[in-house]
Amino acid sequence: MNPPKNRENSITRYYIAEENLAGRVKERKADYDLMAAVMICLGKEEDSATDLLKLLNVLLSTETGSQDKCQILEEDFHIRMTQTLEREVSLMCNLSKGVEEKGIQKGIQKGLNKGITAMILTLKELQISSDIILEQIREKFDLTEETAKIYLKKVN
Q1: Phi first, then psi: what are they for 4, rounded to 5°?
Q2: Which terminus of the chain is more exposed, N or C, with fewer CB under 10 A?
Q3: Structure pTM?
Q4: Could you tell me if 97 and 111 are in contact, meaning their C-beta atoms sit under 8 angstroms apart?
Protein backbone atom coordinates (compact mmCIF):
# COMPACT_ATOMS: atom_id res chain seq x y z
CA MET A 1 0.00 0.00 0.00
CA ASN A 2 2.93 2.39 0.61
CA PRO A 3 5.57 1.48 -1.97
CA PRO A 4 8.64 3.60 -2.76
CA LYS A 5 7.91 6.43 -5.23
CA ASN A 6 9.57 4.59 -8.14
CA ARG A 7 7.18 1.62 -7.71
CA GLU A 8 3.91 3.54 -7.24
CA ASN A 9 1.05 2.62 -9.57
CA SER A 10 2.78 -0.36 -11.10
CA ILE A 11 1.87 -3.98 -11.71
CA THR A 12 4.79 -6.36 -12.19
CA ARG A 13 4.70 -10.07 -12.96
CA TYR A 14 7.54 -12.42 -12.06
CA TYR A 15 7.62 -15.91 -13.50
CA ILE A 16 9.91 -18.87 -14.08
CA ALA A 17 11.64 -19.04 -17.44
CA GLU A 18 13.86 -21.71 -18.98
CA GLU A 19 17.49 -20.81 -19.59
CA ASN A 20 20.01 -23.41 -20.69
CA LEU A 21 23.39 -22.67 -19.15
CA ALA A 22 24.94 -25.89 -20.48
CA GLY A 23 23.46 -28.32 -22.98
CA ARG A 24 20.34 -27.97 -25.09
CA VAL A 25 17.48 -29.32 -23.03
CA LYS A 26 14.08 -28.09 -24.10
CA GLU A 27 11.12 -28.58 -21.77
CA ARG A 28 7.53 -27.75 -22.47
CA LYS A 29 6.68 -24.44 -20.82
CA ALA A 30 3.74 -26.14 -19.10
CA ASP A 31 6.21 -28.41 -17.24
CA TYR A 32 8.21 -25.66 -15.56
CA ASP A 33 6.19 -22.45 -15.65
CA LEU A 34 3.94 -23.46 -12.77
CA MET A 35 4.20 -20.36 -10.66
CA ALA A 36 3.94 -16.62 -11.13
CA ALA A 37 3.88 -13.74 -8.68
CA VAL A 38 2.18 -10.45 -9.37
CA MET A 39 3.13 -7.42 -7.33
CA ILE A 40 0.66 -4.55 -7.35
CA CYS A 41 2.02 -1.30 -5.93
CA LEU A 42 -0.58 1.38 -5.43
CA GLY A 43 -0.08 5.12 -5.29
CA LYS A 44 -2.33 8.13 -5.60
CA GLU A 45 -5.57 7.49 -7.44
CA GLU A 46 -5.12 10.51 -9.70
CA ASP A 47 -1.68 9.26 -10.80
CA SER A 48 -2.97 5.80 -11.76
CA ALA A 49 -2.19 4.99 -15.38
CA THR A 50 -4.79 2.25 -15.86
CA ASP A 51 -8.41 1.74 -14.89
CA LEU A 52 -7.43 -1.35 -12.90
CA LEU A 53 -5.01 0.64 -10.74
CA LYS A 54 -7.58 3.42 -10.30
CA LEU A 55 -10.19 0.87 -9.23
CA LEU A 56 -7.83 -0.78 -6.74
CA ASN A 57 -6.77 2.62 -5.37
CA VAL A 58 -10.43 3.51 -4.77
CA LEU A 59 -11.33 0.17 -3.20
CA LEU A 60 -8.29 -0.06 -0.94
CA SER A 61 -8.08 3.60 0.06
CA THR A 62 -8.07 4.14 3.82
CA GLU A 63 -9.03 7.80 3.43
CA THR A 64 -12.21 7.33 1.38
CA GLY A 65 -15.42 6.33 3.14
CA SER A 66 -17.70 3.55 1.93
CA GLN A 67 -20.41 5.92 0.61
CA ASP A 68 -17.84 7.87 -1.41
CA LYS A 69 -16.35 4.62 -2.72
CA CYS A 70 -19.76 3.42 -3.85
CA GLN A 71 -20.41 6.72 -5.61
CA ILE A 72 -17.02 6.61 -7.38
CA LEU A 73 -17.56 2.98 -8.39
CA GLU A 74 -20.93 3.86 -9.87
CA GLU A 75 -19.97 7.13 -11.58
CA ASP A 76 -16.40 6.47 -12.72
CA PHE A 77 -16.47 2.71 -13.29
CA HIS A 78 -20.16 2.23 -14.17
CA ILE A 79 -20.57 -0.49 -11.56
CA ARG A 80 -24.21 -0.74 -10.57
CA MET A 81 -24.46 -0.60 -6.81
CA THR A 82 -26.75 -3.17 -5.27
CA GLN A 83 -27.47 -3.43 -1.56
CA THR A 84 -25.24 -6.50 -1.42
CA LEU A 85 -22.35 -4.72 -3.14
CA GLU A 86 -22.78 -1.65 -0.92
CA ARG A 87 -22.67 -3.91 2.15
CA GLU A 88 -19.50 -5.59 0.85
CA VAL A 89 -17.80 -2.22 0.25
CA SER A 90 -18.85 -1.06 3.73
CA LEU A 91 -17.59 -4.29 5.28
CA MET A 92 -14.27 -3.92 3.48
CA CYS A 93 -13.94 -0.32 4.73
CA ASN A 94 -14.74 -1.36 8.29
CA LEU A 95 -12.23 -4.20 8.07
CA SER A 96 -9.41 -1.87 7.00
CA LYS A 97 -10.35 0.61 9.75
CA GLY A 98 -10.29 -2.26 12.25
CA VAL A 99 -6.86 -3.38 11.08
CA GLU A 100 -5.60 0.21 11.29
CA GLU A 101 -7.04 0.67 14.79
CA LYS A 102 -5.49 -2.60 15.94
CA GLY A 103 -2.11 -1.46 14.60
CA ILE A 104 -2.42 1.89 16.39
CA GLN A 105 -3.28 0.16 19.67
CA LYS A 106 -0.32 -2.20 19.23
CA GLY A 107 1.98 0.78 18.64
CA ILE A 108 0.67 2.60 21.70
CA GLN A 109 1.20 -0.49 23.86
CA LYS A 110 4.71 -0.98 22.49
CA GLY A 111 5.57 2.67 23.22
CA LEU A 112 4.10 2.40 26.71
CA ASN A 113 6.14 -0.74 27.41
CA LYS A 114 9.33 1.00 26.27
CA GLY A 115 8.53 4.08 28.36
CA ILE A 116 7.88 2.07 31.53
CA THR A 117 11.01 -0.04 30.98
CA ALA A 118 13.15 3.08 30.40
CA MET A 119 11.80 4.71 33.57
CA ILE A 120 12.48 1.59 35.65
CA LEU A 121 16.04 1.31 34.29
CA THR A 122 16.70 5.00 34.95
CA LEU A 123 15.41 4.79 38.53
CA LYS A 124 17.47 1.63 39.12
CA GLU A 125 20.61 3.43 37.88
CA LEU A 126 19.85 6.15 40.41
CA GLN A 127 19.72 3.36 43.01
CA ILE A 128 16.10 4.04 43.92
CA SER A 129 14.47 1.27 45.97
CA SER A 130 12.07 -1.15 44.31
CA ASP A 131 9.19 0.05 46.49
CA ILE A 132 9.61 3.64 45.30
CA ILE A 133 10.05 2.49 41.67
CA LEU A 134 6.76 0.55 41.95
CA GLU A 135 4.99 3.61 43.35
CA GLN A 136 6.46 5.89 40.65
CA ILE A 137 5.47 3.73 37.69
CA ARG A 138 2.01 3.10 39.18
CA GLU A 139 1.42 6.86 39.44
CA LYS A 140 2.98 7.90 36.12
CA PHE A 141 1.39 5.17 34.01
CA ASP A 142 -1.81 4.59 36.02
CA LEU A 143 -1.02 0.91 36.63
CA THR A 144 -2.39 -1.56 39.16
CA GLU A 145 0.07 -2.86 41.73
CA GLU A 146 0.12 -6.31 40.06
CA THR A 147 0.87 -4.82 36.62
CA ALA A 148 3.63 -2.59 38.04
CA LYS A 149 5.20 -5.63 39.74
CA ILE A 150 5.11 -7.53 36.42
CA TYR A 151 7.00 -4.70 34.68
CA LEU A 152 9.53 -4.50 37.51
CA LYS A 153 10.04 -8.27 37.41
CA LYS A 154 10.56 -8.19 33.59
CA VAL A 155 13.27 -5.55 33.89
CA ASN A 156 15.06 -7.47 36.65
Answers
A1: -60, 155
A2: C
A3: 0.52
A4: no
Widest CA span of the chain, in angstroms?
Answer: 78
Distance CA(26)–CA(7), nearest Å, equals 35
Q: Is 1 helix (H, G, I), strand (E, B) or coil?
A: coil
**Residue 103 DSSP label:** H
How far is 17 from 46, CA to CA, in rounded Å?
A: 35
If you average pLDDT over residues 22-26, what whole number do you get? 92
The residues, any chain, with a CB within 8 Å of residue 56's CB and separated by 6 or more, are: 40, 42
Is residue 60 within 8 A of residue 44, CB to CB? The reply is no
Contact 8, 43 (CB under 8 A): yes
Q: Distance between CA 15 and CA 38 in Å, rounded?
A: 9
pLDDT at 43: 82
| 25, 68, 74, 97, 145 from 62: Cα distances, Å | 50, 12, 19, 7, 39
pLDDT classification of 59: cutoffs 50, 70, 90: confident
pLDDT at 44 over 80: no
